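Hi U.,

Before I forget, here's the chain from the pilot set. I'm dumping it here mostly so it's searchable later in email.
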Amino acid sequence: MLITVLFLVFCTAGVVGFAVVPMMYGRAAVITEKRQQKMTNKMGQLMTKDQMRNLNRLFLLAPVLCAAGLYLLFPSEFKLLGVVVGAAAGLVLPGFYVQILTRKSRDKFSDQLVDALMIMSSSFRGGLSLIQALEAVVDEMPDPINKEFGTVLGENKMGVSLEEALNHMYDRMPSSALQQMITAILLARETGGNLPAIFNRIVTNIRETKKIQQNINTLTVQGKIQGFVMSLLPIAFGFIVYTSNRRVFEHMFTSDLGRALLIYALISQLIGTFLIWKISTYRDY
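Structure:
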């Protein structure tokens, strides 16, 4: 009787596993593909095809490599936890990498926008049209601004209205200065206006905004340093206690309560560091 029950339980578990596991695997594959596609579309305007291919490889290999690395680094009793943490970190880290690249590209674009506005203003004074002024920016400016303006010209040549093409550029590179430039161009096309004078005002606003941004960064340095120091203090304290009197700290690893407290401390530390960094960081977009 017992053998029959065990056989039925085994068959039921096998049938459920055969039905559920492929479904869960397929669902996970769909979620991963959507996430990868979202990041790929986000980076499509910032990378070459080779760089995009390397990014796709990073999305696939990061979870496996992080899980394997933490599996080797963690003690034998925590290897399963290391695999889980490593896989989760491998899923999160590529997103941070994409955010860093996007932020760097946007910051560089904002820095180049002043020179682009001066070139366009000089082109208008020389009697050139708006399209010719955009072409002058593409010819004289480096990446990423020449690529963005070149995309605007390419979309316009393919039949997209200039307003939509400029709005697409703003979606890729959002900033208050670019929004002012686009608004000035569109209003001047409809109602007329002195675009060189308007661009000079926008350049002045950009420079004043940069000065304010530098002052804000100076004032928030103290908060960032404080957050960095507060993040390192618990780690340094734990290391000092562990090296000076190892028996006192071993209870944190050997008991269930100690391990739970360590996990709670780690999560709280990460949350606190993130909140301090967000409070101490200012962005105008």
